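Thread: Newbie trying to understand structure tokens

Hi all, I'm a second-year student working on a class project, and my supervisor (Dr. K.) asked me to get a predicted structure for one chain before our next meeting. I've only ever worked with sequences, so writing a 3D structure as a token string is new to me. If someone could post the tokens and maybe explain what I'm looking at, I'd be very grateful. Here's the chain:
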Amino acid sequence: MREVAALFFRSFLKGLIILAPIAITIYIIGWVFFKIDTIIPDEVGIPRGLGFVIIISFVTIVGFLGTRFFIGKAIFDFFDHLLERTPGIKFIYSSVKEVMSSFVGDKKRFTRPVWVRTHTSPETWRIGFLTQPDMGYLGMEERAAVYLPHSYAISGWVIVVEHSNIRPVTHMSPAEAMKFAVSGGITISDDAPSGVKIISP
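---
Reply by user tm_fold:
Sure, no problem. This is what the structure looks like when written as tokens:
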């Protein structure tokens, strides 16, 4: 009886491991779809689902006009200049703009993954992203700023360390390095050898 119960419990956990990521992914996609679709109120009278298409199309057209045509770029640059100089609004706008630019677009900042030595005894290294290679303009000579993302979170912190404590990540792409960091080291590169074990001293 115990063997049957143990088998049932193990099978349940296996099924949970298989189905939970799928269910959560579908839920998040559905939630995003619903939130975008309901930006246009029901009073407009458009069918459900069409609002999502309209919003996505509008954002795409804005991005296309803002990068491909001189007049469109001039208009967006004007509003950008206006918002960045409006008291009270400029702090919110600039912060959101910087965060978005760090992850998407032509000015992505998290493109240089590095290893950072945070302790020397015992020697401890953390993975991060080089954001400012030279902090000399702030009086921090021979130092660089590195962003260290938190695991299982969208937060992190910035540290300033000497160049000697920084090594480039050479066997992972920026995307793989971010996955490695936010997953707590569980997600590894496809080039990693199988069967790696940690040997206790």
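A couple of things are worth pointing out once you decode it. The mean pLDDT is 81. The beta strands are 113-120, 123-132, 143-149, 156-162, 166-168. Feel free to ask follow-ups in this thread.
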